[in-house]
């Protein structure tokens, strides 16, 4: 599968302009089967302004992205601040197939820092078929936990995709976590982080495409960039390191403590 990593900074609070940026990226890489954009790319990452900027899945900006996907024949994964029925907000990821059809929306399940003051956490993980492949979607802080990626792998994901708005000083954390989640599950992993600054936060870029053995196949720097990578999906891992087959999640934990007779405080 040929995947386009679009590492860019959005125009804050300008969903239509950001949708046009997606259209331009797709047009510049017509051979891509899947394009991945950063966390909250359509609306910008400014927590105090999230309520003002949030959009619904039927917003005109997302309609533009669907049109762009259909025109290019490229599936799209892109983040946005979503207004839910009733007025609550979610940190969401739109998943649009190559025919322009909106297939699913993933709502971030692990909220970072002050995000929990703004957003409602999602209650389900998501494996979605895009471009004929089963893709497990993660959003930024999600990738720092082994469990969500493992659950996606167990559910049949062929590729892990993480969108992010990761900032200093956490760049090294994600560089390690992205490779680890690939190796943990023997799945290729595409990680797309944004660049630039917004609301006093500096974002680090450093997007990655990683092979199932944890090797980086494509690494972008800290400035805006877009590049495509060919991923070989669906191959079985070597039997000796097929971790999904070998792991034993049912094991109990025994706690053994030491007791010093006569000790007192």
General description of the model:
The protein has one domain: Carbon-nitrogen hydrolase (Nitrilase/N-carbamoyl-D-aminoacid amidohydrolase). β4 and β5 (102-107) form a beta hairpin. The mean pLDDT is 96. It has helices spanning 15-28, 50-53, 60-72, 115-118, 146-154, 171-185, 243-246, and strands at 2-7, 34-36, 75-83, 89-96, 102-107, 126-130, 133-139, 159-164, 188-193, 197-198, 201-202, 208-210, 216-219, 225-230. The chain has seven helices and 14 strands. Strands 5-4-3-2-1-14 form a six-stranded mixed sheet. Strands 6-7-8-9-12-13 form a six-stranded mixed sheet, with helices on one face. Strands 10-11 form a two-stranded antiparallel ribbon. α1 runs parallel beside α3 (60-72) and α5 (146-154) runs parallel beside α6. The protein is of the alpha/beta class and 265 residues long. The chain starts with a strand and ends in a 19-residue tail after the last helix. Helices cover 24% and strands 28% of the residues.
């Amino acid at each position: 599968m040929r995947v386009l990593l679009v590492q860019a900074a959005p125009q804050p609070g300008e969903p239509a302009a950001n949708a046009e940026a997606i259209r331009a990226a797709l047009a510049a890489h017509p051979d891509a089967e899947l394009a991945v954009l950063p966390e909250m790319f359509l609306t910008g990452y400014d927590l105090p302004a999230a309520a003002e900027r949030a959009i619904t899945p039927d917003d005109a900006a997302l309609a533009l992205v669907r049109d762009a996907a259909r025109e290019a024949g490229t599936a799209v994964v892109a983040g946005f601040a979503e207004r839910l029925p009733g007025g609550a907000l979610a940190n969401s990821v739109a998943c649009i197939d190559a025919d322009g059809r909106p297939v699913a929306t993933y709502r971030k399940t692990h909220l970072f820092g002050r995000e929990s003051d703004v957003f409602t956490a999602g209650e389900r993980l998501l494996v979605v078929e895009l471009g004929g492949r089963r893709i497990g979607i993660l959003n930024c802080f999600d990738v720092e936990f082994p469990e969500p990626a493992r659950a996606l792998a167990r559910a049949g994901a062929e590729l892990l995709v993480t969108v992010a708005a990761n900032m200093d000083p956490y760049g090294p954390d994600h560089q390690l976590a992205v490779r680890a989640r690939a190796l943990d599950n023997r799945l290729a992993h595409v990680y797309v982080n944004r660049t630039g600054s917004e609301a006093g936060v500096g974002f680090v870029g450093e997007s990655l495409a990683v092979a199932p053995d944890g090797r980086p196949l494509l690494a972008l720097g800290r400035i805006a960039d877009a590049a495509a990578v060919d991923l070989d999906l669906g191959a079985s891992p070597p039997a000796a390191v097929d971790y999904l087959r070998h792991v034993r999640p049912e094991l109990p934990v025994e706690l053994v403590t030491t007791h010093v007779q006569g000790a007192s405080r």
